Amino acid sequence: MNLGQWIGLIALVLSLYVLWQIREVLLLMFAAVVLAATLNRLAKVFQRYGMKRGFAVLLAVAIFFIGVIGFFWLIVPPFAQQFNELTYRVPLGFERFNTWLDELRTRIPQQLVTYIPDINSLIQQAQPFINRVLGSSFAFVSGSLEVLVKVLLVLVLTGMLLANPIAYRKVFVRLFPSFYRRRVDGILDKCEVSLGGWVTGAFIAMGVVGLMSVVGLSFLGVKAALALGVLAGFLNLIPNLGPTMSVVPAMAIALLDSPLKSVLVLALYFFIQQAESNFITPYVMAQQVSLLPAVTLISQLFFVTFFGFLGLFLALPLTVVAKIWVQEVLIKDILDQWGHEHPNESELVIVSDHSQADDPWDDDSHHDSSDDTVVQED
Q1: Does residue 272 lie within any of the structural domains?
Q2: What InterPro entries does the record point to (predicted)?
Q3: Closest by Cα among 236, 196, 234, 194 to 36
């Protein structure tokens, strides 16, 4: 390798190192892009009915904030009330269970008494863990403040992207060589369509799961059924793990009434999860975006390992975008063209000639005459 190649290799390694160090910032930027694309899609729907761009964007943002405020308004108060009741009833439940175990010890042979657990000893063993949890309350508050700052950053970036999306898109496209910019623009169009399809499908599945949860929990007589149903629908945005996370608070609240009701809630969520994974999501996502189940699970494991909870939440949109870039750039433009040194004339597209020398993504109106003709493989 000559000096220039060594310098290029070092620059590539340093660039990858810098990108890895700022990976969390890049993930927040991607979250802002996904949110901006979603709101922009909603604004375009309003624009089709004759609404001006500015009013359409404001209406889309207003609907988003109303949805967020409504979500927390439905979720937080009932859960706070049920949590207070839970902290009161759980110790009583432990006492009743311990009394039942004492009665059981008097009725069984002495050889089996040693195999019955002692609740008091279990609580003493769990005491260090409880102390660690309580001692980390300050860290939890600090983490909450950090999350709040990140949320505000995403919202600010989303507003900036919504204000003038074309300008930011031009800046991104200009990072590529001039002969490839038209191709990048087409790839971005496909990414926008796929992200929009994923958002549409995810919201449809979320609404169906939330409605089924509300109806089922109301039929079982579980308290805070509406809040639990909304939470189940929201967590359905996280495939595989989201439904498992949503069943825990539902079973805990049902346990306040009776253990049998808690088991029935588990059966209900299992039925909803089976219906969602086998019927709802395959049908909805087949109309919007196609991802293999194994690819979805692997992407979740990958992104949660390197990016934490936010990576888990954004695993699917990240996978959708990554799939398009790999398919279009790596497979079609590189691997499929490997070894084709002399492509047919029918495969060549004239991007510009002497009469049309301007780069559509260049703000400058003058070009060097040596760059007038650019040939690109389609």
Answers
A1: yes
A2: AI-2E-like
A3: 196
